[in-house]
């Protein structure tokens, strides 16, 4: 009996449980302040939008692991997570990536996924602005969970809000784009403003930055191509240029498959 008890104590020792001791439950606000590709709900609320954003390269994932001091890991233990998720307009910038564990309990990547889905639903139904959703999850995802979903699993209390100028812990940070400029801020009490022109004429088969979505008419019909995630974008000769996927669809174009 004593031998069995000793084995149980050994199995439950700190060394045996150390696999996730270094797993960060919150991203470092200096390494990962958050970054967005777009703040336009007309873009992210289109079904299938996240599939148009390219996957994070493995080399960049390894860079993120190293920056957080994670030198070894088990298969399936972590994901390189977007602090501001793709479905909320987040980018693949290193400023928006951190290693989040699937195996820590009670908080883990699955719990944050629940928050991401809730914020997406709220933003796309107009109950909150997309920028409010982005700021909430970038500032303190655990506090955002309590606000928009409910109590955290296991009765966990989210970390307190930081004081102005604080540089450690969960921080309120500016959400700055590094990939493409976001649309103008969406006011909470006003509808999303319509662009001044939903489409513009291409120049030499290319589209301007203000209307980067290429429309092409061919044997397969009227198809539009997005600048992110579409392997055919660069070689597509534009016959029309659109500001948003919705504008292209209104003109009778469908997304490239």
Automatic annotation (TrEMBL):
Keyword field: Signal
Signal sequence, start to end: 1-18
Q: What is this protein called?
A: HNH endonuclease
Q: What ranges does the record give for the region Disordered, renumbered to this chain? A: 157-191
């Amino acid at each position: 009996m004593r031998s069995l008890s000793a084995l149980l104590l050994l199995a439950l020792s700190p060394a045996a449980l150390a696999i996730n001791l270094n797993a960060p439950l919150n991203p470092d606000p200096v390494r990962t302040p958050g970054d967005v590709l777009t703040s336009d709900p007309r873009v992210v609320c289109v079904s299938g939008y996240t599939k148009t954003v390219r996957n994070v390269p493995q080399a960049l994932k390894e860079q993120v692991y190293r920056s957080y001091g994670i030198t070894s890991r088990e298969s399936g233990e972590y994901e390189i997570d977007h602090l501001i998720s793709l479905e909320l307009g987040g980018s693949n910038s290193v400023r928006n990536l951190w290693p989040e564990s699937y195996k820590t309990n009670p908080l883990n990547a699955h719990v944050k996924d629940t928050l991401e889905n809730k914020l997406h639903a709220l933003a796309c139904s107009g109950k909150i602005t997309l920028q409010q959703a982005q700021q909430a999850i970038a500032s303190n995802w655990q506090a955002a969970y309590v606000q928009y979903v409910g109590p955290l699993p296991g009765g966990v209390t989210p970390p307190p809000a930081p004081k102005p100028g604080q540089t450690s812990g969960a921080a309120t940070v500016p959400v700055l784009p590094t990939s493409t400029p976001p649309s103008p801020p969406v006011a909470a009490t006003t509808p999303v403003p319509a662009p001044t022109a939903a489409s513009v004429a291409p120049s030499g088969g290319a589209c301007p930055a203000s209307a980067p979505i290429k429309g092409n008419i061919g044997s397969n019909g009227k198809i539009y191509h997005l600048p992110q995630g579409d392997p055919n974008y660069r070689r597509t000769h534009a016959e029309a240029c659109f500001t948003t996927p919705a504008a292209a669809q209104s003109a009778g174009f469908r997304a490239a498959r």
